[in-house]
Amino acid sequence: MNEFAKAKVLSALAVVGVLFAIHPLVQDYGEAGFGFFGVVLEFRVIYYLLLVLLGSAVYFFAMDFIADNPLGFAHRMGNHFYAMAMLFPPTFFFVLVAAKAAEGVVWVSDSPVAGEISKIAISILIGAGAILIAHVVSRRMNLRDRFASLDQMSFRAKEHLQRAEELQEAGHHDLVALEAFRSVESALRRALLDGDIHVSSSRPNQLIPVAARAGVIPENLVGVFHELRVARNRAVHASDDFSEADALWFIETTRKMLASIQRVKEDAGAMAEKPGVAA
């Protein structure tokens, strides 16, 4: 989960904490409200609906946190509920303004029908506007999450490779394979996310074939990626030693594979910039 997503979870939990803190006031004054189409909209409705929306957002963000598919369905639903929760109080306020405006129309025109018509028109506009804004905000958050995740995965790829080099210098040769392959995984997941390609699992034995079919991995290097995966498994699970020569080969091959992924991305970008070539 990227830092922007964590910030949304923390802000949602903070608002939930405030709602629990003001619960005694809701018990005392929550039945107050205003008439709307013959129904009294009580202020406690805002309280409980807002609590449900925020709770749903946190729930879906939590599902996304434990899921193996970053920025998948759970994350998009979390953004949707989060946007609705943030827009719900002002929407309720504008509904109150619509009710008061309708009373003003009745007073000016001395026509209850005119007041009801104006109330319906304003309510439809407010509702449609709130839905549209929530949809736009949700899409913007999805886009920001995507860019944040791309930056995070790029940083992790470099960080894991640097850690592998430090482990090599320290003589922990078996751990070199683990960290270096994590660098490869992060680079592959970043490339797939950048191409808006979602995978059901990030396990290496499934990630590499998906990346190969998507063109993220050059066809002539697919076998090398699998060779790295097998060597990583041998270093982690096998009882025989992972020698210094093995570790040096793993780091060098990892650098080459990361460079190949970058070249594929640059070539795709160059093709997209050519006139007459679809992005």
Can you give a write-up of this model?
Helices cover 80% and strands 3% of the residues. With 279 residues, the chain is an all-alpha fold. The longest helix has 59 residues, at 112-170. The model has no long low-confidence stretch (mean pLDDT 80).
**Percentage of residues in DSSP E strands:** under 5%
Which runs of at least 5 residues are low in confidence (pLDDT < 50)?
none
Structural class: mainly alpha
Quick check: average pLDDT?
A: 80
Number of domains: 2
How much is the radius of gyration in Å? 27 Å
Number of helices: 9
Taken in chain order, the helices and strands follow as HHEEHHHHHHH
For the largest sheet, list the strands in their spatial order.
Answer: 1-2
> Main sheet, how many strands, which sense, barrel?
2 strands, antiparallel
Label the overall shape: elongated
Helix content, binned percent:
over 70%
Measured between the Cα atoms of the first and last residue, the distance is: 28 Å
Key terms:
single chain, 279 residues, mainly alpha, Four Helix Bundle (Hemerythrin (Met), subunit A), two-stranded antiparallel ribbon, 9 helices, 2 strands, 80% helix
Fold blueprint:
Blueprint: H1 3-21, H2 23-29, E1 33-36, E2 39-42, H3 43-66, H4 73-109, H5 112-170, H6 173-194, H7 204-213, H8 222-237, H9 244-273
Antiparallel strand pairs: 1-2
Helix pairs in contact: 1-3, 3-4, 4-5, 5-6, 5-9, 6-7, 6-8, 6-9, 7-8, 8-9
In short:
This protein is mainly alpha-helical.
